[in-house]
Amino acid sequence: MSGHSKWHSIRHKKGALDAKRGKLFTKIIREITVAARQGGGDPEANPRLRTAIAKAKEANMPKDNIEKAIKKGTGELEGYYLEEVIYEGYGPGGVAIMIDVMTDNKNRATAEIRNILTKSGGNLGENGCVAWIFDTKGIITLSADKYDEDTVMEVALEGGADDIKRDGEVWEIIASPEAFHSVKNLFQQKEFELLVNDIMRVPNTTVKLVGKDAERILNLMEKLEDNDDVQNVAANFDIPDEVMQKIGQ
């Protein structure tokens, strides 16, 4: 499976553990605060904020936490300044990586990201070195064992999705960022179980990994995700399902 869907599926499974460690809530609160600061506190008029609030609700974040984060972003409550930074670089096997960071200390964040990449067999690159490999898309995945192609296709087209394809054990529905919420809402209204639903960077070309490089890229992705300043990671790796099974993910 390709990196954007496979890693998000893995991250979805480990979400409960992240929540216990407080990392998931921290990342979502930061996203809500910055989204509200940039686009206002009304989720209906601010798609980025609407997406962040949806993530918060899926993570069972208390309503009070969500409201406080919005008010910090709009200035109604005292907050602290967060700077958004996008890092680009390479991982094991020449995999392209883009890392979205929100930090109150850019120098610290840069040093930490560079250290993680270097120790994992990668390196930090210049701005623009890999951005051309990725497009921003809304991605929804469903179990291919649970839902048949015709049913998924019908709902996807009705909602305004761009494409649907099978990727290993899941159906992957691809939509533009503008159509993402309508597609997602329609699947939820029809009571589909969504494995992944997010707006993310999707690679237009991938690097196939096996053996040690496959293990190393997954370890790298987890180390990056575990960093407090990192919000999202996109990479263009492709790991065959039989290799994933051997790794034990």
Write the layout of secondary structure elements.
Blueprint: H1 3-13, H2 15-20, H3 23-39, H4 47-58, H5 63-74, E1 83-90, E2 96-103, H6 106-119, E3 123-124, E4 134-143, H7 149-159, E5 163-167, E6 170-175, H8 180-189, E7 196-203, E8 207-208, H9 211-226, E9 230-235, E10 237-238, H10 241-247
Parallel strand pairs: 8-10
Antiparallel strand pairs: 1-2, 1-3, 2-9, 4-6, 4-7, 5-6
- Tell me the count of domains: 3
Overall pLDDT level:
87
Widest sheet: strand ordering: 3-1-2-9
Q: Which structural class is indicated by helix and strand composition?
A: alpha+beta
What is the end-to-end distance? 12 Å
Uncertain runs with pLDDT below 50, 5 residues or more?
none
| Helix-strand pattern | HHHHHEEHEEHEEHEEHEEH
Remind me, CATH topology of the largest domain?
Answer: Alpha-Beta Plaits
Radius of gyration, taken over Cα atoms and rounded to an integer in Å:
18 Å
What do we call the CATH homologous superfamily of the largest domain? YebC, transcriptional regulation domain
Q: Give the CATH class of the largest domain.
A: Alpha Beta
Proportion of helical residues: 40-55%
Count the beta strands: 10
Q: What is the approximate shape?
A: globular
Could you give a short account of the major beta sheet?
4 strands, antiparallel
> Count of DSSP helices?
10
| Beta-strand percent range | 15-25%
User: What is the CATH architecture assignment of the largest domain?
Assistant: 2-Layer Sandwich
